[in-house]
Structures are given as structure tokens and as C-alpha cells.
Amino acid sequence: MKKIILFINLFVTIAAAQYAEGQFIEDIVFTDSDVDSLSNIIYTQKSTKDLISSGKVVVISFFNPG
Questions:
Q1: SS3 at position 54
Q2: pLDDT over threshold 60, residue 16
Q3: The overall pTM is greater than 0.85
Q4: Are 12 and 59 spatial neighbours (Cβ–Cβ below 8 Å)?
Q5: 26-65: per-residue pLDDT in tens?
Q6: From CA 30, how far away is CA 49, in angstroms rounded?
Q7: Cβ neighbours of residue 45 under 8 Å, at least 6 residues apart?
Q8: Cα-to-chain-centroid distance, residue 55
Q9: Which of 18, 34, 47, 48 is the most buried (most CB within 10 A)?
């Protein structure tokens, strides 16, 4: 059990230490999917830069259990 906790603590520390506060990072582009009224799947390309410049809040979750 102690090894698992140590591994998780080490992983989180390394993952969080990659960028310093205020440091600029590259723009992240991803594919978003949505379903229209006819049950067709619509794929669109989005980027974090476009979302932030439009006034939206961006939350990136790496530990989503679902």
C-alpha cells in the first residue's frame, strides 16, 4: 500500500512540475463530437486558444474516472 501511495505522489509531482505558473504552452487542438437532432454525429476541430479567446473557461482533467 505504501508503494502505491509513493508512486501516485511521485507521478503527481512530476506531472505538475512540467510547467511553471505564467509560462506559455503550445495550443492544444482536439476533436469534439456532438449529436444533432437527427442522431448524426458531428465532429469539429477546436483549440484551447480559440475557446479562451471567446471567453470560455477551459478545464483539462487528466484523472477522469469515467
A1: coil
A2: no
A3: no
A4: no
A5: 788 888 888 999 999 999 998 888 888 888 877 776 666 6
A6: 11
A7: 29, 30, 31, 32
A8: 17
A9: 48
